[in-house]
Protein: Pyrophosphate--fructose 6-phosphate 1-phosphotransferase
Organism: Streptomyces atratus
Amino acid sequence: MRVGVLTGGGDCPGLNAVIRAIVRKGVQEYDYDFIGFRDGWRGPLEGETVPLSIPAVRGILPRGGTILGSSRTNPLGAEHGVRRIRDNLAKYEVDSLITIGGEDTLGVAATLSDEHGIKCVGVPKTIDNDLSATDYTFGFDTAVGIATEAIDRLHTTAESHMRVLVVEVMGRHAGWIALHSGLAGGANVILIPEQRFDIGQVCAWVTSRFRASYAPIVVVAEGAVPAQGELILKDGSHDSFGHVRLSGVGEWLAKEIESRTGKEARTTVLGHVQRGGTPSAFDRWLATRFGLHAIDAVRDGDFGTMVALKGTDIVRVPIAEATARLKTVDPALYAEAGVFFG
Ligand code: F6P
């Protein structure tokens, strides 16, 4: 049995830990052999492969990024995409594919599996933690740790200069990183994509913080939208799944706060720092377990499924179900954080 492995979408810490676990268990326990596909769906689409064996995965557990490369290639938008993938899988004698990705990469896996009979098992990945059907995705914990450390550091410099510091974190549709790092870092305002924010209210919180003789930290998810307007963007470019590239709301907020409150405001955009570097212990643990269970799903012939964390158990769910809707922040959970605003 030969199993193909690919990593698609935005990279995130823990991808290499999944690959290592899949290969270690697959070779040692089941005598499978493996082939890596380069750069997400671009690999099977264009027939670009990477050798994958136990020696190839030695030492990669703590390494960020992915040894297979990643891209946002959408093969369903490419000419004869499904036929080309099928031909390349046949050419490399690949029986089944383990696809490690977020909503887009896994959405393609669901279509290929359910509509075209290509045998796929999914592993959920995204620092945004917005995939339903799993309690957590790996990469999220690392990103929250990085953002929290940044907020801690920004507090001290904000206090020295008595200025507002706005921290823009990732989170396209879901504010999980903003909420968790904002709570952990003691932010005075947290803004998430799920709830439009009122700029007048944000300025009132900022002012009340200064009144208490402290400098405010505003954490904003890149996908947060003002009640009075539209999504704020730096430019209007899109990726190949048609998503507009985000970032810009942090700069916009600082300008508005400055002009409305008269207080100096600066912005730090954490950007890809949140996706880089070594995974946290939790993410290594989760990614490793996902890998071990994904290869078991292949062995059981349980295709069209995705491994997921439920409590402390790893379960299998249909990929189509997991990608049907996003997991967003519940209003009640967001309301809990309100005690610390202002
Ligand atoms: O999908 C995860 C994510 O981190 C989003 O929060 C963010 O908008 C996007 O990736 C950025 O992706 P790219 O690196 O392709 O610009």
Summary: The pocket of 6-O-phosphono-beta-D-fructofuranose is lined by residues 9-10, 72, 102, 126-128, 170-172, 222, 239, 245-246 (CB under 6 Å). The chain has a mean pLDDT of 96. The chain has two domains: 2-138+279-322, 141-275.
